[in-house]
Amino acid sequence: MTKERLYLFDTTLRDGAQTSGIDFSVNEKIVIAELLDRLGVDYAEGGYPGANPTDTEFFSKKRTQKAKFTAFGMTKRAGRSVSNDPGLQQILAAEVDAYCFVAKSWDYHVKVALGCTNEENLEGISETVKAAVATGREAMIDCEHFFDGFKANPEYALACAKTAYDAGARWVVLCDTNGGTLPDEIKGIVGKVQAVVPGDHLGIHTHDDTGHAIANSLAAVDAGVRQIQGTLNGIGERCGNANLITLIPTLLLKSSYADRFALAVTREHLTEITSIAHAFDEILNRSPDRHAPYVGETAFATKAGIHASAILKDPQTYEHVAPETVGNRRRVLVSDQAGKSNLLGELARLGVEVEKTDPRLDRLLADVKQREAEGYAYEAADASFELLARRALGEVPRFFEVNSFRVMVERRFNAVGDLVSMSEAVVKLDIDGEQRMSVAEGNGPVNALDRALRKDLGKYQTAIDGLELIDYKVRILNGGTGAVTRVLIESHDTTTHRRWFTIGVSSNIVDASFQALVDSINYALLKAGAV
């Protein structure tokens, strides 16, 4: 039986950016776009070109390799032509594969928010879609507050959807914008929309204000829609959006969907979904939800008792899916075999070749587990993990030894009477038996250490000429005066345009930072082929 195609549209970089407390930098958006490609979604909505400097820079070039890079924007303003709408023209000029325009589909909002007639709104939808299609890219319309609009005036809500489809929209997306619609309502209304728009041109966009975003998305699919919009880990304004990290395994592993639909995301992609979810949380500088479906640390954990003893004998009867299929693992007993399988998969992704029978893998696995118990999290620190793995396999030269480092912070009045804070770092290195000492000042202790460490690497200096630190995140793993600190550093090589993350953990924030800095330089030298 031929399966129907189901499409996944990620809106983390736009809708997810509206989450309270989240503000993506350009570099973070670039890294998240890479995660979306790794996950295998069909569309990655990057934001609103021209709305702010961050989105404008992000859209200066195409940011995805596999997913269709999508720009978000508003439909044409009433009373203006397409060519005389600067905002619309900026979106149409973006280097993207598709456009997603938000349109009012509730007649109340047309009157109150847009201040135009219902007919002018329909005209704006039609002309916007036609202009987008004329560029040769895909056009889609997000019908904002569609379900509220349908309940208030079904004829007009349907007219908005039909107008978009008739104008050439590839997708007409029905939005439960305030998250208040329930699954039975979603299913019933979607069924009626298909009288004017076929299901293979319909999408669903749900919010989680009643805790039904995933259920509503599935209800819409059951009713006929073939595109689902959502975000990584369900982030979004208020209570969040439909969580693609939960939806994807459900669609791929549950027979009621897996037997009917084909996705761009494969079973192979699925084995990385736990590490992708955790890496995304690390980018946000927050702890992963331990109880998250499929990917949480406790998703397949069972405490002692009758279930624990039984699961050892027959785990399939106590787990709704095999943990390994989503890159997770069982927590009842420590399964070295499952752990080794995950480790081999991660090594393969990084291009590290090793036989599964290699005894060094056991030592590496034990080392990783010990470090994770101490606070390391390698899902978002590929460079540090690769260094750890290659060292265990004897593949990393010892480029230099750090004999000692020292940082001083001085707060004083400068020559013009301003109160300033100055940091000075001293780093002593051993390179091929030769002692080297570098001193540097910086804007804070970490910047001073970074400058001192990279000031004089002797024969390796040219290999790090393009190296720069572009992001720095700190998380306190436990409270109190003896708190353990995790530092995540993002580095970039301006010569090769390669970027990577390294990690350090210590009760001392400066020491944790220095660990991550040393890893960053070692990784740069490794990739440069230094010897």
Automatic annotation (TrEMBL):
EC number: 2.3.3.21
Top-level taxonomic group: Bacteria
Record keywords: Amino-acid biosynthesis, Branched-chain amino acid biosynthesis, Isoleucine biosynthesis, Transferase
Pathway involvement of the protein, from the record: Amino-acid biosynthesis; L-isoleucine biosynthesis; 2-oxobutanoate from pyruvate: step 1/3
Domain Pyruvate carboxyltransferase stretches: 6-271
Entries under Gene3D superfamilies matching the protein: 1.10.238.260, 3.30.160.270, Aldolase class I
Catalytic reactions of this protein: pyruvate + acetyl-CoA + H2O = (3R)-citramalate + CoA + H(+)
EC class of the enzyme, as a word: transferase
Family annotation (SUPFAM superfamilies): 2-isopropylmalate synthase LeuA, allosteric (dimerisation) domain, Aldolase
NCBIfam families cross-referenced by the UniProt entry: citramal_synth (TIGR00977)
Homology family: Belongs to the alpha-IPM synthase/homocitrate synthase family.
Name of the protein this chain belongs to: Citramalate synthase
Lineage summary: Bacteria, Pseudomonadati, Pseudomonadota, Alphaproteobacteria, Hyphomicrobiales
